[in-house]
Design goal:
It is a single chain. With 136 residues, the protein is α+β, with helices and mostly antiparallel strands. It has one domain (2-135): Alpha-Beta Plaits. Helix content is 30%, strand content 27%. The protein has three helices and seven strands, in the order E-H-E-E-E-H-E-E-E-H. It has helices at residues 15-29, 66-79, 124-135; strands at residues 2-10, 33-36, 40-42, 53-62, 97-103, 108-109, 114-115. Helix 1 crosses helix 2 (66-79).
């Protein structure tokens, strides 16, 4: 089994409910959620919006490969109402956003996926809950 850390974020609708539903789906489709950080409210990063985010990080255990995990998180996003992904650094409001952060100690770079997540060090909304989960 592999340890996978996933970043979660929502800035549309009932944000807390959206994160809880995403965690349930991660548990069912990717693997058991072992730990979840507190939910923290944060300002949008990389774009302007009136809507704040609710962010968290979870640790799950999975038998899936990194690319299988990516496909499952994208399916979960679609199930929860996300209709478009951010591209070329252009971000927008979204009901749910799931990012693969760390997968064991694996380093990989493909057109679809880079691990560890290349921007996580720049994002307090990732690093603060990630530290909470790792140090727990």
């Amino acid at each position: 089994m592999h340890k996978l850390y996933i970043g979660l974020g929502s800035n549309l609708g009932n944000k807390e409910e959206m994160l809880r539903r995403a965690l349930e789906l991660i548990n069912k489709r990717i693997g058991p959620v072992l730990r979840t950080s507190s939910f923290i409210e944060t300002e949008p990063w990389g774009f302007e919006s009136r809507n704040t985010f609710l962010n968290a990080v979870c640790l799950t255990e999975t038998a899936l490969t990194p690319l299988q995990c990516l496909k499952e998180t994208q399916k979960i996003e679609r199930l929860l109402g996300r209709t478009k992904k951010s591209t070329d650094g252009k971000y927008h409001d979204r009901p749910i956003d799931l990012d693969l952060l760390l997968y064991d100690n694996l380093e990989m770079k493909t057109p679809e996926l880079t691990l560890p997540h290349p921007l996580m060090q720049e994002r307090d909304f990732v690093m603060i809950p990630l530290r909470e989960v790792i140090e727990h």
